Amino acid sequence: MLGFAAMPGSLHVAFAASEVAPFVKTGGLADVASALPRALTALGHRVTVLLPRYGTIALPPGSFAGAVPVPVDGAHRSAGFYVSEQDAVRLVFVDHAEFFDRPFPYGVGNHDYEDNRLRFAFFSRACLEFFRSRGERPDLFHAHDWQTGLLPVYAKALYAHDAVVGRMPVVFTIHNLAYQGNFPSDTLAVLGLPRHLGAPEALEFHGGVGYMKAGLAFSERLTTVSPTYAREIRTPEHGYGLDGVLRARADDLSGILNGVDYDEWDPRVDHFIARRYSAQRPAGKRACKAELLATFGLPAEPDLPLVAVVSRLVHQKGIDLVVGASEDLLRRPLRLVVLGTGEREVQDGFRRLAQRDPARFACRFAYDPVLAHKVEAGADMFLMPSRYEPCGLTQMYSLRYGAVPIVRATGGLRDTVEPWDAARGEGTGFLFAHADGTGLVWALDRALEAWGDARGWRRLMRNGMTRDFSWRRSAEAYETVYRSAIADA
């Protein structure tokens, strides 16, 4: 058994997450579940992170910690536990070949696995059984998104009187409310959960059972990943049917901005880029821009501003707005590079744009983490026209790399990008209010106008590059929420 040296006042936080970088990643949840535990250990806390052992995960050095029965649907099932340690964080891989030995965590393409309700009910209960079987009680659980929404339900409904994990305090974080884990009405019966949990004030959601709603209803404290998103999800526009639940729990809901791992995303230390640079010594960015243009097959001259998109090419991200503004882009003095994968019609739109003017527009339809670093370092401007964005990390990377963000004023984008005021020399980027091509082109024109003032542009870049979005302050905010949840349990 791996042990920890407790510090006075320190907490033992158990993380339950369906993805954790670098082991498995489909979105920002994986980055949070990797970076926040390390930030908490730096504050003196103990952290155990539990995640499914998917088929793609090659185990790091560690040990087999036994197996325990985990009943979810009447079948005889057991979870095996592999325990390791990385950066002072204890990692527990929950093993079950039938449920997790698959190439993708949630489904193939746009089709979810049909047994996801069982897979993640099993995972949630297995997290509790890990500690129960060892007689070890953390101070609280930190559960993430719908995949762990049943964890507080199990802790309070089935383990209420258990001496180890009974009525465990839970903090539940919403990373994206649009993904809710809603399942048919027979789910309670299949899982063997009490019938009264099917009430509207519990798990019932539009005639079925909602795992996201379960996390919202049964956790002591709720958080989401930016202050603005915490306000937006309490409105019908962004609440996806759960805005009433969130308004009722407004006093328990906090918006805590995600942080950035500057050990990985900082041009001063980035080993993927052509030349390192900083706000004080920015000359290296020119070499990075030259390399990026060459990588995408674009000429270096004339020296036009280079605009970049690195994103999933999907409706949420508003990337179709960029395609819809193609005629405007063709008339502007700029170059554009696009990196990402997503909806076919969006990819086709960018492909047509590149065919019309291959000297100024280029795209790579791929998931390429190394190239993403090069794009951040080489770009002059960065487009993020999201329809909604719970937090967003890319705009914070862009600020540090001196790629001035052009973003829609929503969610974490509004919280992290400050409007540029040329007269005062204040601000870090350009924002537009409405998710349409008119707003996007308006903001882009403001950026191109600012580009024409070389001295002002250097000030704008420097403002962004010196902003601090490190994880420490986020971790301190979570610590406050944790102690509040423990006090109320």
- Give the overall form: elongated
Q: What kind of sheet is the major sheet?
A: 9 strands, mixed
Low-confidence stretches: 1-8
Strand content: 15-25%
Largest sheet: spatial strand order: 3-4-5-2-1-8-9-13-14
Helix-strand category: alpha/beta
Round the Cα radius of gyration to an integer and report it.
Answer: 23 Å
Number of strands: 20
Quaternary structure classification: single chain
What's the total helix number?
19
Task: Summarize model confidence as the mean pLDDT.
Answer: 95
Q: How much helix, percentage-wise, in residues?
A: 25-40%
Distance between the termini: 28 Å
Secondary structure layout plus pairing:
Blueprint: E1 12-16, H1 28-42, E2 46-52, E3 62-69, E4 78-86, E5 89-95, H2 97-100, E6 107-108, E7 111-112, H3 116-134, E8 140-144, H4 151-158, E9 170-174, E10 182-183, H5 187-191, E11 204-205, E12 208-210, H6 211-218, E13 221-224, H7 227-232, H8 236-239, H9 243-248, E14 253-255, H10 284-295, E15 306-310, H11 319-324, H12 326-331, E16 335-339, H13 344-356, E17 361-364, H14 369-378, E18 381-384, H15 394-401, E19 404-408, H16 411-416, E20 430-432, H17 437-451, H18 454-465, H19 471-488
Helix pairs in contact: 1-19, 10-14, 15-18
